[in-house]
Write a structure and sequence with these properties.
The complex is a heterodimer of chains A (314) and B (284). By secondary structure, chain A is an alpha+beta fold. Helix content of chain A is 26%, strand content 31%. Chain A has a single domain (3-45, 133-313), classed as Aminohydrolase, N-terminal nucleophile (Ntn) domain (Glutamine Phosphoribosylpyrophosphate, subunit 1, domain 1, 4-Layer Sandwich). Chain A has eight helices and 15 strands. Chain B has 284 residues and is α/β, with parallel strands linked by helices. Chain B has a single domain, classed as Pectate Lyase C-like, CATH 2.160.20. In chain B, 13% of the residues lie in helices and 23% in strands. Chain B is built from four helices and eleven strands. Chain B has helices spanning 12-15, 63-75, 236-248, 277-283; strands spanning 49-57, 78-84, 101-105, 117-123, 137-142, 158-161, 174-180, 194-199, 215-218, 229-232, 261-265. Classes of the chains: A alpha+beta (314), B alpha/beta (284). The A-B interface holds A 267-270, 272, 274, 287-289, 291-292, 296, 298, 300-303, 305-307 and B 87-90, 106-107, 109-110, 125-126, 128-129, 144-148, 163-168, 183, 185-187, 204-205.
Chain lengths: 314, 284
């Protein structure tokens, strides 16, 4: 089933980590296999923030194979050496969990595609997000579990999207969890509720164009699809509108960039979405109770129509 | 020695007199005889007094607790119940089978007031997906917008949304009337079988897709027609009925109903014949 939620504050910052936690926790009945956050924090915009994993969570319910923690250490060492080779300087390093790390990197050599390809050439290593504002945090469990595990409650920023996942077509693991980074674009993330039926056709086409897939989760296609459109010069909104015909199946998805938040709904309107919009805040989710967690007062909400695409700026 | 004589086996319903049909050919069911009303008991219903009013704050209750509390209040004879702080919770006010004035001061989540038979409901907010699904009778008024599948499979009664609704409004509708003051999304009247849908605003694509029967009236633009949905001329009785209904619904009273588009089933997709399975067997 899965649930998605997102919000954007316009003209101010807020405690988006805590707010999104509340929204996703309200949707936990839609799936607790994994929960993911894409948070756009207030940063100085100087350094890249790289969230990456060197292994999987092999806890209860995981479909991943258990590895020795020493393997994670080895992978981390290789990442560090590759970063050094590419001229990237680690400004700050946090190892939140044995398999999950956060680096602040001074890197100005440009192309993130080459950078990412180099890092991800290390088996078992995946960049969850790369950007100057975006941080993707995803792990097994419900919203509160993941929020507490990664200490997200204090994160201040302008906007965020998140996903509560009920695994259906791929494993219960971090690599299949949402949000997906819009590789190789800085600060682009995607969450999706639905099912894409032309996943493999699109994947083959996009892989032939040099795009990369890390999982077999159909939702990853949306991030890659939009990234490829933008690589060819389309704006985010143009790519999203194009996706209504390019992607087949049922879907409601959110996409976020450093300065914007967008939603798209398929032409069958088969997946739910409730939207609240005011001059200073847009909040949306699979169910109204998600919005209620940040706006308990009586508000006017509505369901976007079939084939609708909307983008808001901070 | 065992008694080999066959005996006529009656179902419980038959022995109560609910079914008197002779099972040959088409079914001739006699559902209810008003002269025998005292023999029938509608389980889960209460005699309530509309003048007996109470308020119920459900802010700290889950939907089961809230619905149980509503049931308790009805059993105490309260005929007007005001629900405070529904907060978008799912499945509130479901399964009410008697007359009741039920007022929600706020918004409901999914499956609000589903499977009801008789109450008059007013929601001073918005409702989520599948509001009033399977409603048999009564009147439900939504003051703001509604989600998708509004009035799915309703059998009777009046379901009114003063705002706009999502996709598949009146999907599988089997009777009653659905009135929308604003716009409606895609697949409005999808597979509807009976009843009427009135949309004063615009509708999305595939209006009346695969509808079997029933009538849809649209005041605004139509995105596209679904399979087997066709336009039909408005008649005087259509106009009279619409005027009357909109007045009763307290919505669009000044709307020029004569300019509305009437949509019905083309019946080209119908794959029915007049034969019952047993008759068909004989014909083959």
């Amino acid at each position: 089933m899965c649930g998605i939620a997102g919000l954007i504050h316009r003209g101010k910052s807020s405690n988006v980590g805590q707010e999104l936690q509340g929204m996703l926790q309200a949707l936990k009945h839609r799936g607790e296999d994994s929960t993911g956050y894409a948070l756009y924090g207030d940063t100085d915009g100087q350094n890249f923030i790289m969230r990456f994993k060197v292994g999987e969570n092999v806890g209860e319910g995981s479909s991943s194979v258990m590895e020795d923690v020493s393997v994670y250490d080895e992978r981390k060492k290789i990442v560090d050496s590759y970063l050094s080779q590419m001229g990237a300087k680690i400004v700050k390093e946090e190892r939140i969990l044995p398999y999950s790390l956060r680096y602040e990197i001074d890197y100005d050599k440009g192309d993130l595609l080459e950078f990412s390809q180099k890092i991800e050439s290390i088996p078992g290593v995946e960049i969850l997000s790369m950007g100057k504002s975006l941080e993707v945090i995803k792990d097994l469990g419900n919203a509160k579990t993941v929020c507490d595990r990664y200490n997200l409650g204090d994160l201040v920023g302008t906007h965020a999207i998140g996903h509560a996942r009920m695994a259906t077509e791929s494993g219960v693991d971090i690599k299949s969890a949402h949000p997906f980074w819009g590789y190789p674009f800085s600060d682009v993330s995607v969450v999706h509720n639905g099912q894409l039926t032309n996943y493999w056709n699109n994947r083959r086409i996009l892989e032939n164009k040099g795009m990369r897939f890390m999982s077999e989760c159909d939702s990853e296609l949306i991030a890659v699809y939009l990234a490829e459109k933008m690589r060819n010069g389309a704006t985010l909104e143009e790519g999203m509108k194009d996706s209504l015909s390019g992607l087949d199946g049922v879907f409601t998805y959110f996409v976020a960039t450093k300065n914007s938040l967008g939603m798209a709904k398929d032409t069958m309107a088969a997946k739910p979405l409730v939207l609240y919009e005011s001059d200073d805040l847009v909040a949306m989710g699979s169910e109204e109770i998600a919005i209620r967690s940040v706006l308990p007062q009586e508000i006017d909400t509505y369901d976007p129509f079939d084939g609708e695409v909307k983008v808001w700026q901070i | 020695m065992a008694n080999l004589k066959t005996t006529e086996k009656k179902t419980k319903a038959q022995s109560m007199g609910l079914h008197t049909e002779v099972l040959t050919g088409k079914t001739q069911q006699k559902f209810f005889n008003p002269d025998e009303a005292e023999n029938f008991y509608y389980w889960g219903t209460y005699d309530v007094d509309f003048n007996k009013r109470t308020e119920l704050d459900v802010n700290d209750m889950d939907c089961k607790e809230a619905n149980k509390k509503i049931d308790e209040l009805m059993s105490q004879g309260f005929g007007t119940i005001v629900i405070k702080n529904p907060q978008g919770k799912h499945s509130l006010g479901v399964g009410i089978l008697n007359k009741l004035n039920l007022i929600f001061e706020g918004s409901l989540g999914y499956f609000g007031v589903g499977s009801i038979d008789g109450p008059t409901v007013r929601v001073n907010g918005r409702v989520g997906w599948s509001c009033a699904e399977n409603m048999m009778a009564g009147k439900v008024v939504i003051e703001k917008n509604a989600g998708s599948c509004f009035g799915a499979a309703v059998r009777g009664g009046d379901l009114i949304c003063k705002g706009s609704v999502g996709a598949r409004t009146g999907i599988d509708q089997k009777g009653g009337t659905i009135i929308i003051g604003g716009d409606a999304g895609a697949f409005t009247g999808f597979m509807m079988q009976r009843g009427r849908i009135v949309v004063l605003g615009n509708v999305g694509i595939n209006l009346g897709d695969s509808m079997y029967d029933g009538t849809i009236y649209v005041g605004g633009k139509i995105g596209s027609y679904g399979s087997d949905a066709i336009e039909s001329p408005m008649t005087k009785s259509d106009i009279d009925w619409l005027k009357r209904k909109l007045k009763v619904a307290e919505i669009g009273e000044n709307f020029d109903v004569s300019q509305m588009t009437k949509v019905v089933a083309g019946k080209k997709l119908w794959n029915y014949d007049a034969l019952e399975p047993t008759e068909k067997k004989g014909a083959i």
